Fold:
Amino acid sequence: MDLFKVLYIDPGTGGMLFTVLFGIFGVAIFGFRALLMKLKFSMGSDKNAKINNEKLPIVIFSDHKRYWNVFKPIADELEARHQKAVYLTCSEDDPALKAKYEYITAEFIGEGNKAFSKLNLLNASVVLSTTPSLDVFQWKRSKNVDCYIHIPHMSNDITLYRMFGLDHYDAIIVSGEYQERQIRQLEEARDLPAKEIALCGIPYMDEMKKRFDDSDAVPAHERTVLLAPSWGESGLLSRFGEQLIDKLLSTGYKIIIRPHPQSFSSEKEMIDKLMSKYNDDTKVTWNRDNDNFNVLMESDILISDFSGVIFDFSLVFDKPVIYTNAKFDINPYDASWIDEPLWTFSILPELGIELTDENVGDIKNLIDRCIEDSSFKEGRDKARAQTWVNIGEGTKRCVDFVMKEYNEVVAKKAKEEASQSSKKSGKNNKKQRKNGKKQ
Structure:
């Protein structure tokens, strides 16, 4: 019996151990594949010459066109400062490819392994990206990149990336002090060197707020409900699906459904079924706009789960939300390594009402209560103060930080080259003195 007690592992710890072992196995597999790709692309292929031979000052890497809203304000600011940069994208129809810049050049580098094979041999001073898991799976740190900077694409917990998501970045841009605290706890738990952290703000939300402030008031309209879930088993459509949509239609309100872009590939069968069943556009509208500004502007309330759109909607447009308890398993995520509860789930009750199996049938009453209850505005003000610092200044501060890192890299290189030149000159002088003595 004592032996069983010694060997017993509680389910939570067991789940975490399994996740860690799975992660290690994945790292080994992808590491081997990355080595093969590196050998392949370093043996005489000149397809990557444009990217890899010339030392690029600043590179922005986007793994999907949907992150253009994150990078556009930064690209605009770099352009305004006449700072050369290269924008690399994995989307062939990324809006950046059509943007008319003088100092920013954009290039489609392919998808998947084709893109990573180029990134892994990249030659640049600074790389800025929203993509996590650098040096964990396919995307490896290039020995010719001096500094990797991560910028989040959402305004919530920095620990909601898969495990080890930010460990190998050199610097991280954040928008709230609690995010910095989370990063420091991860570093301490994993015995990692301290990263440089810049508390800058959220450029894309600043731009969204500017558009909102400059827009005309929405004309009087019928009450409009936006259903915008995330994807996966814990997502709103997977949990409630037809039951929720039927109840929403019974309210008589205008209903807009905007699935997460990933749902159209990862949950295609479910989405196709729902879109086929609910195809009367006089009752429900399916929205797939790349830019979500207009649909957020015209909606009076948002129903979602753990999607970052909750904070875009509530903090920029100052409107209430109905959210679900995602029953979120934190074990595969960085959040499982720190003690404090996730900020996202702690703040949600102050932004709106939770949707449950018990109250989904009363959805009309929930919608009306949320819209008419003024106490949720106080919660939105609190959330805004905690997760969105330097409102209106995020872009400038982010670019200031990127430029600081770039200038430090350039200064360090210049110092190293001067030192090497001095040593070389000293050796030559010493050699000349020796030759003079011999003569």
